[in-house]
Amino acid sequence: MGLIKIFSGDVILAVTLKEKLEEANINVVIRDNNQANVLPSIQTVKPVELFIQEVDFGKANPVIEDFRLSI
């Protein structure tokens, strides 16, 4: 069983979806590859990615679909 990516995008949307999934008792891994603190002169904003366990996808899918319809 591994992780599957369920979202890639803006940090505000990622945090909102993460909170909704955690309310449904689904553990979420967030990956943010932005290096603004390391190299402040470089303005490259990469999307934030959310991952969940494959076994949680069935439970997470309705939450994800409701979220997508609301944005």
From TrEMBL:
InterPro entries: DUF2007 (IPR018551), N-reg_PII-like_a/b (IPR011322). It holds the Pfam family DUF2007. Residues 6-67 form the DUF2007 domain. SUPFAM superfamilies: GlnB-like. This is DUF2007 domain-containing protein. It comes from Flavobacterium rivulicola.
